[in-house]
Amino acid sequence: MNYQGKTVWITGASSGIGKAFAHKLYDLGANLILSSRREEALIKVKNELGADSSRIKVLPLDLTEPETFPAKTKEALKAFGQIDVLMNNGGISQRSTVLETDMEVYRRLMEINYFGAVGLTKQVLPHMVERKSGHIIVTSSVAGKIGTRVRSGYSGSKHAVQGFFNSLRQEMYQHNVAVTLLCPGFVKTDISKNALTADGSEFGKMGDAHQKAMTAEQMVEKVMPKITARKEEIYVTGFKERLAIWVQRISPTLLNRILKNQKVT
Question: From the candidates 3, 154, 173, 235, which is the catalytic residue?
Answer without folding.
Answer: 154
